[in-house]
Amino acid sequence: MQHTRPQDVSPAEVHRQARGVAASSDHLRVPLARFEDRLCAGIIGLQAEAAMLMIDRIRDNAHQLGIRLHEDGCQPNFVVIFSDDSQATMRSVVDRNPAIFQFVPPAERRRLLAPAPVHVFSHVEPRTRDGMPIARERNLVSPPVSRQQMAHSLIYTTTRRDITSVTIVFDRHEVVGLSVGQLADYATMRGLAETQVPDELPLNSILTLFNPQGPHPEGLTDFDRAYLRALYDWVPNLPAAAKLGSVNRELERLRVERAAEAGPAPSER
Question: For the chain, where are the E strands, in sequence order?
């Protein structure tokens, strides 16, 4: 596992990777999506013991980011499915939920249903900065309207984007040889943030877990943790650029924290 930024990787390359990982195009005006509701993870298609281990790891990852968790027995809003045909399973999810997918652009729907070892759909709901849902209609004459007081700022946006549910479908034959921890951390990186896998990554990331050429990290790397910490730090209605610009800072914080945990070097004692 990668624990520090390699010396040949510059802060600019880290920032470039963060921008490439973010599944967002308008970094200056639109916030990154994140979980604000309580999280409840559920697993389908996995033996009970392995499913519990996976749920516990996802919950622990979320807890470390400050995400609130539901108690046991909750209705899952973070669903992981293991399927013999992930593409067909995701197509079934789309067909059975027309009310949700009516707002998904055609290009995004095609990407969602394209052949892949893992299919991920995040239901993102626009809300006011205070968490009130913004009603939407699928037409050209009734745009979303938000009425708020004291919401104008050159720093914050007036709205935020909340991930209200996530569905992650793994192909069974693609996960052979991978550990429960690797799959849980991959689900964490894809589910707690809207992320994609760029062609090239200067720093190791769990996002390359299903790339044939690898690398295949044992879990979340320092880049992954820094990215998620930057996303969940402070308020949710900051433009994406502000969050992505903090990934280098979080990497440095991780380095300092790890050095403090390790204690002084033998020669300094």
Answer: 41-44, 78-83, 118-128, 159-171
